[in-house]
Amino acid sequence: MNDDPTAGDTGTVESRTAARTGGGPVGSATGTGAGTSAGVGAGAGAGASAPRVRKQHPIEAESFRILRSRVDLSPMPPLWRAVTERIIHASADLEFAVDVATTEEHLAGGLAALRAGAPIVTDVEMVAAGITARDTVCQIADPATGRLARAAGITRSAAAVRLAYAEVGPGAVWVVGCAPTALFEIIERGVRPALVIGLPVGFVGATESKQALRDSGLPQVSNISEKGGSAVAAAACNALLYHEGDPQ
Question: Quick check: 65 pLDDT over 70?
Answer without folding.
Answer: yes
